[in-house]
């Protein structure tokens, strides 16, 4: 056993679950690799923290210089079951020894079907469902729009402020933020319309009536600007991810979903970041009892193997003509085995409960920190999807400079944190759901220290 309380064979049971910093961050070996990378990879592909990873397990990421960092990122909400989770690794290895690819469109295999059966069973709503498997979140969202347009015969797609849906032409168009996602990459896809999101911290009349007011405004704009009968789908993240972990104010999503239902518009929940236990529910839609017509999933689905899915009402999914959907690698057998392992881990380790406990541990400490530092304007999130929004002395103007400075301090101390937000002023925390309590607490200590150094009390 390498750690005091984690058995071998469990997530976190292979590498010591300790922060250990032996060089500056990034260290000399990482800097050397970074020089090689700079000559081989264009700067358009960035890295939050250029430490070059050699190993990872449980709550730690080990770099080429032998530093062990605390992981508050999970590779952007992907390795929720822990990196190289033993059950995932075993099933992938066994599959790699059997066959690695046939293309499901050429000659199918059982694991693809088993993943779809599980998605059909586990996503919100007890209606009959179907699923397709693809490679990335963006590809899932693109397919959801294709299916919605086909099934409704309508062209328009409605999205929201602060939304993020990917980097392909269509999903970049659906995405709200220009820099860095859209700048210079236009012209964008037609028939995409953006509506206000119920952002409690920044709603002009305050948070109390934000949900109903934002919904009324969005519905009015859809009706007046597009015409409800022209709308195929509303695509929305139940908690805006890249946009800064914005939980739409209560009542907003149910009102939009009801409007969709009344007008034959498909409600598409983009659960790519929020799905698979991350928010303390298996899917974030469950929080307000939303039953989407279509759900897109990716990130946490397969423990790091590239896999994504669209799951939806059988009659909608079945509408598309034979051969109209697919792709060479969609539902790759290694990724399907990984997904089946992830679903077992979520259930057996009660990772929805683990996510809730992570939120319960983090929120009070972050609120305490916010009480000390006026720069923390908002503390929010659910489960293990938690964020703080940083503002200037007036209490509202975004402070991306301080956000970057605090993130840098955390990185230097060996805590991997991510930033987010339309204004770049959000620190977001996405620890693996299997992170040991002591690493979670130590990560928060590092954050506290970073604020003590960078922010006014
Ligand atoms: C990350 C993300 C996507 C895009 O997923 P990729 O796998 O990067 O293409 C889409 N929607 C949401 C909500 C995301 O967080």
From TrEMBL:
<dbReference type="InterPro" id="IPR050103">
    <property type="entry name" value="Class-III_PLP-dep_AT"/>
</dbReference>
<dbReference type="InterPro" id="IPR049704">
    <property type="entry name" value="Aminotrans_3_PPA_site"/>
</dbReference>
<dbReference type="GO" id="GO:0034386">
    <property type="term" value="F:4-aminobutyrate:2-oxoglutarate transaminase activity"/>
</dbReference>
<comment type="similarity">
    <text>Belongs to the class-III pyridoxal-phosphate-dependent aminotransferase family.</text>
</comment>
<keyword id="KW-0032">Aminotransferase</keyword>
<dbReference type="InterPro" id="IPR005814">
    <property type="entry name" value="Aminotrans_3"/>
</dbReference>
<dbReference type="InterPro" id="IPR015422">
    <property type="entry name" value="PyrdxlP-dep_Trfase_small"/>
</dbReference>
<protein>
    <recommendedName>
        <fullName>(S)-3-amino-2-methylpropionate transaminase</fullName>
        <ecNumber>2.6.1.19</ecNumber>
        <ecNumber>2.6.1.22</ecNumber>
    </recommendedName>
</protein>
<keyword id="KW-0808">Transferase</keyword>
<keyword id="KW-0663">Pyridoxal phosphate</keyword>
<dbReference type="Pfam" id="PF00202">
    <property type="entry name" value="Aminotran_3"/>
</dbReference>
<dbReference type="InterPro" id="IPR004632">
    <property type="entry name" value="4NH2But_aminotransferase_bac"/>
</dbReference>
<dbReference type="InterPro" id="IPR015421">
    <property type="entry name" value="PyrdxlP-dep_Trfase_major"/>
</dbReference>
<dbReference type="InterPro" id="IPR015424">
    <property type="entry name" value="PyrdxlP-dep_Trfase"/>
</dbReference>
<comment type="pathway">
    <text>Amino-acid degradation; 4-aminobutanoate degradation.</text>
</comment>
């Amino acid at each position: 056993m390498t750690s005091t309380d984690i058995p071998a064979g469990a997530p976190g049971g292979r590498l010591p679950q300790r922060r250990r910093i032996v060089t500056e961050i990034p260290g000399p070996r990482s800097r050397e690799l970074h020089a090689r990378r700079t000559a081989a990879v264009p700067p358009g592909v960035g890295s939050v923290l250029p430490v070059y990873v050699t190993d990872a397990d449980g709550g730690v990421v080990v770099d080429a210089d032998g530093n062990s960092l605390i992981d508050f990122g999970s590779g952007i909400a992907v390795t929720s079951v822990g990196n190289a989770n033993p059950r995932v690794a075993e099933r992938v290895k066994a599959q790699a020894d059997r066959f690695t690819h046939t293309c499901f469109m050429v000659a199918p295999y059982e694991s693809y079907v088993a993943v779809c059966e599980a998605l059909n069973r586990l996503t919100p709503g007890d209606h009959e469902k179907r699923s397709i498997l693809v490679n990335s979140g963006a590809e899932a969202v693109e397919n959801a729009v294709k299916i919605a347009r086909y099934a409704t015969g309508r062209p328009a797609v409605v999205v929201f402020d602060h939304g993020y849906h990917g980097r392909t032409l269509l999903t970049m168009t659906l995405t709200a933020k220009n820099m860095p996602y859209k700048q210079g990459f236009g012209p964008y896809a037609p028939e995409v319309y953006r509506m206000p999101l119920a952002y409690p911290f920044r709603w002009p009349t305050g948070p109390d009536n934000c949900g109903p007011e934002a919904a009324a405004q969005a519905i009015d704009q859809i009706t007046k600007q597009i015409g409800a009968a022209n709308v195929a789908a509303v695509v929305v993240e139940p908690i805006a991810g890249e946009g800064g972990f914005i939980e739409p104010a209560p009542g907003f999503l149910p009102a939009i979903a009801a409007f969709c239902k009344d007008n034959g518009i498909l409600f598409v929940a983009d659960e790519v970041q929020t799905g698979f236990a991350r928010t303390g529910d298996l899917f974030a839609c469950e929080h307000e009892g939303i039953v989407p017509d279509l759900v897109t999933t990716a990130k946490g689905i397969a423990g790091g193997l590239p896999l994504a899915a669209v799951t939806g009402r059988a009659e909608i999914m079945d509408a598309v003509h034979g051969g109209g959907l697919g792709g060479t690698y969609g539902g790759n057998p290694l990724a399907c085995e990984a997904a089946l392992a992830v679903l077992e881990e979520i259930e057996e380790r009660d990772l929805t409960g683990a996510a809730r406990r992570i939120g319960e541990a983090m929120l009070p400490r972050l609120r305490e920190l916010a009480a000390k530092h006026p720069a923390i304007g908002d503390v929010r999130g659910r489960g293990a999807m938690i964020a703080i929004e940083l503002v200037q002395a007036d209490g509202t103007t975004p402070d991306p400079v301080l956000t970057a400075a605090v993130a840098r301090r955390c990185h230097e101390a060996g805590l991997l944190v991510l930033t987010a937000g339309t204004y770049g002023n959000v620190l977001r925390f996405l620890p693996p759901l299997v992170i040991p309590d002591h690493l979670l607490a130590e990560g928060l200590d590092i954050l506290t220290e970073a604020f003590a150094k960078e922010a006014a009390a």
